[in-house]
Amino acid sequence: MKVEILPSAREDLSAGFVFYDEQETGLGNYFLNSLIADIDSLQIHAGVHRVVFGCHRLLAKRFPYAIYYRVEGRTAKVSAVIDCRRDPRWIGKKLKNR
User: Fold this and answer.
1) Residue 38 is part of which domain span?
2) pLDDT tens for residues 19-35?
3) Long-range CB contacts (< 8 A, 24+ apart) of 81-89?
4) How many domains are contained in the chain?
5) Which residues are registered as beta bridge partners of 59?
6) Is residue 41 within a helix (H) or strand (E), and if so which, with residue range?
């Protein structure tokens, strides 16, 4: 399975990187490496995750984030990487606009 990270998800990853790097130098890199590893796992496991708000949702292993994606043919398209501590209504609205 091919994995494509859409620009909206890249922006989410960038915002998460900035947030964690401000908490502690180097933590942003750890965040980014961890989330990219989770996203890479979609090459094998895409489509097996629970559907939430119309997208498959993969929960990150090391950070309280969810990776939202859709399977289109042989491609998993990652549309959002969102902090799970957000209000679920906010998450739903954000995903609806993507």
Assistant:
1) 2-96
2) 999 999 999 999 999 99
3) 81/9, 81/12, 81/13, 81/16, 81/35, 81/39, 82/12, 83/16, 84/59
4) 1
5) 66
6) none
Side chain identity at residue 94, one-letter code:
K
pLDDT of residue 97: 80
- Token duo for residue 72: 């289109």
| Tens-place pLDDT, residues 39-52 | 999 999 999 999 99
Q: Which CATH number is 19's domain given?
A: 3.30.2310.20
Global confidence as pTM? 0.95
Sheet of 75-83, strands arranged across:
2-5, 75-83, 65-72, 55-59, 51-52
